[in-house]
Amino acid sequence: MSDTSLIQIKGIRDGLLVSLGEASWPELRSALQERIEQQPVFFQGANLSLDVGSRVLEVSDLISLRDFLSERGIRLWAVVGSSSVTENAAQLLGLATRLFKPTPQVETLPVAKGIEDETALWVNKTLRSGTRIEFAGHVIVFGDVNPGAEIVAGGSVIIWGRLRGFVHAGAQGNKEAMVCALDLSPTQLRLADEIALAPKRQGKSQPEVVRIINGQIQAETWNFD
Amino acid sequence: MTSKVITVTSGKGGVGKTTTVANLAAALAADGKKVVCIDGDIGLRNLDVIMGLENRIVYDVVDIVEGRCRTRQAMIRDKRLPDLFLIPAAQTRDKNAVSPSDMVRLCNELREEADWILIDSPAGIERGFRNSIAPADEILIVTNPEMSAVRDADRVIGLLEAEEKPAPSLIINRMNPDMVKRGDMLSVEDVYDLLRINVIGIVPEDENVIIASNRGTPLALDGKGRAGQAFRNIAHRLNGEEVPFMDLEARSIWERLTKLTRGR
Question: Which of A84, B38, B130, B212 is the most exposed place for a label (fewest CB within 10 A)?
Answer without folding.
Answer: A84
